[in-house]
Amino acid sequence: MRIGIIGAGATGLTAAHDLAADGHEVTVLEGADEIGGLAGSLEVQGTPLERYYHHIFASDRAMIDLIGELGLAPKLRFHATTTGIYHDGVLHDFSTPRDMLAFPPLRLADRVRFGASSALLKAVRDGERFGDRRALEWVQRWAGRRAADVIWEPLLVGKFGARAPEISMAWLWARVHFRTFKLGYLDGGFHQVYTALLRSVQERGGRVETGRRLAHIAQPDPAGPVEVTTEDGARAEFDRVLVTVPQPAFARATGAPEDDVLHRAEYLGATCFVLECDRSVIPYYWLNVNDPSAPFLAVVEHTRMVPTSEYGGRHVVYVGNYVPRDDWRFTTDPAELLQRYEPWLQRLNPDFELSWVQDWHFSRAGFAQPVVTPAYRESIPPHETSMPGVVLATMSQIYPQDRGQSYAVAMARRVVQQYFR
């Protein structure tokens, strides 16, 4: 068949790889100028690096298997990284169960209760049972109010803002249940996965075209071809189409009515700085900023996991956030935004000054974080659409997860198996 795939992220390229291997004529249309979607990369001193911090867990079998299939397994390493929490003006170690049981802002009884509630979430296998419960209410009851106030609520507010009280416990369960203490990273970056998938598609006669943002999709005759038009005016026909862009983009392209399920999902945008510094900024790989008044959610010093020698001696630091698309942190000029972040970076490291930053990069994405409320399940559309020739495989459909390379890969393979074979 002639198969069109909309989007060249993890889902789209994995599906294209599998479908091309099956002998189909595959064309991938990607709106951005690069492949990889939210795992797209830039370069730091000649080495590809993800625009938004990425790693995988030992539980991410779909991604690990794909890496092996592409011949990249020798480059995958799991690292024992460090985590900290910034609370009430102080940095606290939070890397191991021992650190958690010694966490000073909590009393011993609170620490034990926090540990027990986390162990419970690790033990529960079906997180969807928490779908209709609110995360803050659950942690206040089971982890205790003090642990909720110090640990969980600042993280939820930092990520979801005013929507934090509405977030489903299924979302928080997924964040705890599948995570492992060691983090996996590919020597040379995950960009290699996407270039290997691209090469695989091309070697089998497929095409991947960037700069082709979806404008319209229709199937006038249910038994006929699917018509796809991109914003540059190009038009193509396919026997089948797999759409991997966020629901709002698909809804616009199909002209779905306002009451259609496609319009129900809510998304936050993402903003992320990559700072190339001449020295270390924080003493951890990952630092949760547990202060709701802070303008960013987390600081990730990538070179606490990967040697600085990979990046010309630069210390690579991410400063990331999830915000509404009309928020000042999404709309402000990046140079000004970095200036406004400086006082907060100085709270994390009093010696820090912007002169440490030798170069910086800024990325923003409009649809990066679904807002997973108890009503979220009702906003998840089926893979089948109103057009017989069109299948939808998008971020919202990996519930109770909300994003992640491995879940995108797994969904791509499941959808190809179910709807294209």
From TrEMBL:
<protein>
    <submittedName>
        <fullName>UDP-galactopyranose mutase</fullName>
    </submittedName>
</protein>
<dbReference type="Pfam" id="PF01593">
    <property type="entry name" value="Amino_oxidase"/>
</dbReference>
<dbReference type="InterPro" id="IPR050464">
    <property type="entry name" value="Zeta_carotene_desat/Oxidored"/>
</dbReference>
<feature type="domain" description="Amine oxidase">
    <location>
        <begin position="11"/>
        <end position="395"/>
    </location>
</feature>
<dbReference type="InterPro" id="IPR002937">
    <property type="entry name" value="Amino_oxidase"/>
</dbReference>
<dbReference type="GO" id="GO:0016491">
    <property type="term" value="F:oxidoreductase activity"/>
</dbReference>
<dbReference type="InterPro" id="IPR036188">
    <property type="entry name" value="FAD/NAD-bd_sf"/>
</dbReference>
